[in-house]
Design goal:
Strand content: 15-25%
Mean pLDDT: 90
Low-confidence stretches: 1-20
Number of strands: 15
Strand order of the largest sheet: 5-4-3-6-7-8-9
Largest sheet: 7 strands, parallel
Order of helices and strands: EEEHEEHEHEHEHEEHEHEHEHEHEHHH
Shape: globular
Length: 379
């Protein structure tokens, strides 16, 4: 992969030959959580990107995060913990973040997950010889404040204002979808510099759909993901010969969550799983269900598609790929429609196969690791 790097040329006074001396580009990866602490979509994309950059060389990489695993020892890069461990008041991390950036003196800051850090990083970059690249992670980051006047006195409003400053002043904004491009232009009058679609390695697991029908949920169990609706789906389709499988970390209400899952005879909770385990389960699964209210571009969609698993979604349909390209189906927020559709796909083998094969073709063409080249070119 062609990775840009800085190069200087020196003349050896004892010979006429020119010797190229490569100066690594100093890159800060700025994401609030490191993948060894909690694995999410932004973390997985950062892991794949960094592994490729480290393999190719030419970068000195620092990962700055609030939440890290203190026992994890990185290879090929450095981790620095900054800021508060809890809470959403990212503006309170400004002093620590600026101190770390001043010490590292990066050539480029690559940032995902919109928050006050976005504004702080943009402010730093414009006062130093530094390029700031913001990669949109969630559609929510592109929607203006809508919580009323009273809450403008809150810390969340300050975080939002700093995010908006950052997206307006970033040297480069990368989007995941055409929809994000439209939101950015509509709400903030700014053009995205490039769409870089999420990237994944090609499957190495044998794909086998011969077993009993399994419907998967893969996400951390938190309110915005609406896990309770998946439990309702398992309850309402209990008459079918189908296993519903939940993977992910429980963030809130663990006792209630576990009680609800334990009460369902057709549902299995597997807890947190590694990416390798998730991919193996997908290779033998038949459907993936998504209940999120908002996403950017869920990595689980791509992992599923690459393994011939159609995605059935309650509300999220990135660039209408589900309903218009036939890679699954989106119920446009109507729960009863989702129940009906999951039942249809669960009982119709040919319907699943057609959608799964279309999904596999699309994902392998549009979401392979060569997309990292497009990202690195912006650094």
């Amino acid at each position: 992969m062609p990775i840009q790097s800085c190069a200087e040329t020196e003349i050896d006074v004892n010979s006429s030959a020119q010797i190229a001396t490569v100066t690594p580009k100093r890159l800060v990866v700025l994401i609030p959580t490191h993948w060894e602490a909690v694995m999410g979509g932004a973390q997985y994309q950062a892991q794949l990107m960094m592994e490729e950059l480290i393999r190719e060389g030419g970068y000195e990489i620092y990962y700055l995060a609030r939440r890290v695993d203190p026992d994890f020892v990185p290879t090929g890069y450095e981790i620095r913990r900054i800021g508060r461990l809890q809470g959403d008041n990212f503006f309170m991390d400004a002093r620590g973040l600026l101190a770390a950036l001043n010490e590292i003196q990066p050539d480029t800051i690559y940032h995902q997950v919109g928050c006050a850090w976005t504004g702080v990083a943009a402010w730093y970059a414009h006062r130093h010889d530094c390029r700031f690249v913001w990669h949109i992670a969630s559609d929510m980051d592109l929607k203006p404040w809508n919580h009323g006047w009273l809450r403008r006195l809150s810390a969340s409003f300050l975080d939002k204002k700093l995010l908006e400053y950052g997206l307006r002043h970033a040297d480069c904004v990368m989007a995941q979808t055409e929809y994000q491009v439209r939101l950015l232009k509509q709400n903030y009058g700014r053009d995205a510099d490039r769409i870089v679609r999420n990237f994944h390695p090609q499957p190495v697991e044998p794909i086998d759909k011969s077993g009993p029908v399994r419907v998967l949920w893969i996400a951390n169990l938190k309110p915005i993901k609406q896990p309770q609706i998946f439990f309702d789906l398992a309850r309402d389709l209990a008459h079918l010969d189908v296993r519903f499988v939940v993977m992910g970390k429980i963030f809130v209400g663990e006792q209630d969550m576990r009680a609800r899952m334990d009460a369902l005879d057709n549902l299995d909770y597997l807890g947190e799983r590694t990416q390798e385990e998730v991919n193996q389960l997908l290779a033998n699964a038949h459907l993936l269900v998504n209940k999120s209210m908002l996403e950017g571009f869920s990595n689980t969609f791509i992992q599923a598609w690459m393994r011939r698993v159609p995605v059935l979604s309650l509300s999220v349909d990135p660039d209408r790929l589900l309903n218009e390209r036939g890679l699954g189906w989106c119920a446009d927020g109507v729960y009863d429609s989702l129940v009906t559709t999951v039942g249809q796909y669960a009982t119709d083998t040919q319907l699943r196969q057609r959608a799964g094969e279309a999904a596999e073709r699309y994902a392998l063409e549009h979401h392979c690791l060569r997309n990292i080249d497009e990202m690195a070119a912006l650094f």
